[in-house]
């Protein structure tokens, strides 16, 4: 039997991104593959958020191509994209006090007919996502009254209920304490074990090293390095990416990087 690499869920080729004709980053090639996590790593102002928003269709590309399951992204209707790509924003403050269960059920909107409420399949998907993320006991709590880590887990559960093939997370551990960072990252990493493609942005190279299979390093509007995270993340590449000295700490079969 010949084992072949899975086809990308989402791929970008020669992509140029920006706003209203102002180029932010370009010459970008990426592939997001089922069962693998890719970390988008880089300094502030390097173009990470603009690239992420373009890849999921919130911004039009200035040039190049994005393909979703082999077809141009723009050829997919918005509802079709939403059934394939789930987006998890940073866990900031919530304006409305929806319950955690209601928040997770919102992930099923792409599967519902217009003006139709959630059906039994939608409720079952939401309950399964709550159970999988270990937050079923919070289902009736207002999402405004749970911790930042629990809120982020609720947003991941909402994405999981969406039944996508790709989950995109924007700085999933921003503003979380140390314990909740570990909890969210562990759950995020488990998504690849279920066969999903995962893309996340981060400022922390150690998160990318430990929780991503692949990394793309973006700075000054270009990819300065990309490839498997274990090979690509090193002192030299991080020094180039951030423009600073980098210290490597190793022991017990693990390594980590600190600013020098």
From TrEMBL:
Family designation: Belongs to the ABC transporter superfamily.
Function: Part of the ABC transporter complex HmuTUV involved in hemin import. Responsible for energy coupling to the transport system.
Pfam families hit by this protein: ABC_tran (PF00005)
GO MF: ATP binding; ATP hydrolysis activity
Family matches, as SMART domains: AAA
Domain ABC transporter: 10-245
Keywords for the protein's UniProt record, in alphabetical order: ATP-binding, Nucleotide-binding, Translocase, Transport
Cross-referenced PROSITE patterns: ABC_TRANSPORTER_1, ABC_TRANSPORTER_2
Gene3D superfamilies per the UniProt record, alphabetical: P-loop containing nucleotide triphosphate hydrolases (3.40.50.300)
InterPro entries in alphabetical order: AAA+_ATPase, ABC_transporter-like_ATP-bd, ABC_transporter-like_CS, P-loop_NTPase
Name the record gives this protein: ABC transporter
